[in-house]
Every structure is written in structure tokens, then in C-alpha cells.
Amino acid sequence: MRKEVVLVAMVVVVVVSWVVAAGGEAAAAAAAVVVDPAWRFPSARLRDAYVALQTWKQTAIFSDPKNLTADWVGPAVCAYTGVFCAPLPGAGGAPGEVAVAGVDLNHGDIAGYLPAGLGLLTDLALLHLNSNRFCGLVPDALRRLRRLHELDLSNNRLVGAFPAAVLDLPALRFLDLRYNDFEGAVPRQLFDLPLDAIFLNHNRLRFALPDNFGNSPASVIVLAGNHFGGCLPASLGNMSATLNEILLINNGLDSCVPPEVGLLREVTVFDVSFNSLAGPLPPEVAGMRKVEQLDVAHNRLAGAVPEAVCDLPRLKNFTFSYNYFTGEPPSCARVVPAADGDRRNCLPNRPYQRTPRQCAAFYAAPPVDCAAFQCKPFVPSPPLLPPPPPAYPGPLPPVYPVPYASPPPPPLYR
């Protein structure tokens, strides 16, 4: 009997060693899951999905107050709460073969971490985990999810450097990492990816926006609440055909507003408030013909507000408080909030302005030389190629009833 136990132990060691060599970290983590040999899975894909999800549940989920994973039992993974299956597209497998295409545990308040075993979900198109308590690092094994189209890890407790695995996901179009504790620089390669939405706000990221920032074809970019410093890149003019919303609030930007912002003909929301932008507001801003919300408050902008800006046809809210503007055209009354839209400037005959001494001290200094910031000049980019179709053209779970719906921020940010 003793010899048999020793033999079994030796076999287990050999098998685990082979798993590590053959499948790497993800497969090694999955080796702890026992699969009942009597179970018959429709495909190897669904067996791998079972191993991945059980690895997560058994080893990496510590608290599930809403019992979302309570029915994660047995081989029928497509019946698990929050797990969605769909036929594999194209030549991805046998005709009609089904795979796990989505995992949605949004607002689950689940505590735990993301195990490397998730790398076994190689057919996943959607991974939505916002508003939980997942902590630790994003596993490098996620780079194996070659069909992943949407990744939402927002409003968790994830840490470490920007997760490099997202740079190797060829199908990724929606990236949401906001309200975590990622720190350090964001690789410049991110802005060369064919992403449609980038949410990185409210982390601990510290870097200067690279000169290829404008290469991004994203329609929505939200980077607020990180520290960038440096220039508002002139390359954002290359986003003219795609960008709808951009929020660069409280990012420590320190430069002039480049005139290329006027090329953003599709933008509807442009918010660069709470930075250190200086110099005049360029009259080219009037090229934003579709802008509805324009916020440049809490900067060091000076001179007169260009009249053409207030005459923009779709503009509903123009806020430029806490700057040093000296002139406001009468047409601005239509779009500037009466209560506080223009306060704390140097505007004559307007209430709640800076004191004459403050304005005199500011204008006693030499005018801002925008060239002194040494920002990279604008270089037009070549035309964009159309993005490939999504990995799963059929219907998937309606996770976002409103496009790019935000999770509620944690109390710290309210």
C-alpha cells in the first residue's frame, strides 16, 4: 500500500511539472482543480473554462456577499451566474461549437484577486468586473485572451504598474481601469492600439502624455485624476474624425492650449479643468462645431475670451472660472453658467472676480511664451484603417444599457 501511495505522489509531481512546462503560470494554477473523470464536456474549451472558473472560485475568491458564484458547481459552465456562452465565430472551432464568451460580475462586491488561471478562458470576448474588491496585480496570463473585446476592471483595489498584458490583446476595443491604484507610467504603445474607449481616471499614474497621444482612434478618453505634467499634446488634432469626449481633469498639465484643438470637429465634451494651462484661449477652439460641454476652469489662461467660442452652435455649458481672463463677449451669457461659470477672473463689471491687486500682479509678469514649453509640433497622421469586426458578431450580454456607463465612484471620490 505504501508503495502505491509513493507511486501516485511521484505521478502527481511529474504531471504538475509537465503542466508548468507546457502551459505556464495559468495552467500551473489550474492544476489544483480536480475534474471528475465521469463528467463529459462538449469540448476541450468548456473543460478549460470549468478549470479556470473553479480555480478562481476555490482559490482566489474570499468573499461573495451576493452569492453570485454560489451556483458555480458542476460541468455546466454556461449555466453559471454571470457566465455567457456563444457559438465560436468563423473558423474558431467545429461548426456550432460553443465557448465561454463573457463573464460579467459587475457590482458584485466580491473580494479576492485575479488568478493566472483566467488565462485559460482563451475565447473570452467580455470580462466585466467593475465595482468589486479584487486586489493585487493583473495577471500577465490575461494576454492569452486573444478574442477579448471589452475589459472592465474599474472600481476595484488593483495595484502595481500599468498591466502590460492589455497591450497584447489584438481584439481589445474597450478598456476601463479607473478607480484603482495603478501607478507609474502608461506605455506609449497604448495610444497606438485600435481602442474605442480608454478609461484610466483616478489611479496613481504619473507620466507625460506622449507625442503619439493623438494616434489613438478612441471616441472616449478619460484620464482625470492622475498626474501627467508636461504638455497638452498638439497631436490630439489627429483625433478629429473620431474623438467625442475627452476629460483631462486635474492632470497637472503645464503648457499652452494648442490651436490644434480646433481640429476636433466631432468632440462634444472637452474638459481640461484643474490644470496649469497658460496663455490665451486660442480662437481655433471655435472649430469645435459639435462641442456641448467646454470646461477650462482652474487654469492660468489670460486675455479675452474669443467671441467665436461663445457663438458655437451646440455649446450648452462653457465654464472658465478661476483663470485671468480680461474680456467676455456678451454672447457668452447664453452658455456661461450664471452662478459660477466666469467667477474669479479679471473681468470688469462682473461679480466675484479676483481683486485688482491679484490681476495687476499677474499681468505685471511677462506674457507667456508658448514656445518655451518645448511641446512637440503637430504632425498630421496618415488615414486610419477601419477596425476589424468584433470577435463575436452575435448578441452578447447587455452589460452597458447606456454607452460607456460609469460605475459609481467609491466614497473617497464623491
UniProtKB/TrEMBL annotation:
Transmembrane segments: none annotated. It is found in: Secreted, Cell wall. Keywords: Cell wall, Glycoprotein, Hydroxylation, Repeat, Secreted, Signal. Pfam families: LRR_8. It comes from the Eukaryota. Residues 1-21 form the signal peptide. InterPro entries: Leu-rich_rpt (IPR001611), LRR_dom_sf (IPR032675), LRR_extensin-like_regulator (IPR051582). Its main location: secreted. PANTHER family: LEUCINE-RICH REPEAT EXTENSIN-LIKE PROTEIN 3-RELATED (PTHR32093). This is Cell wall hydroxyproline-rich glycoprotein. It comes from Oryza glaberrima (African rice).
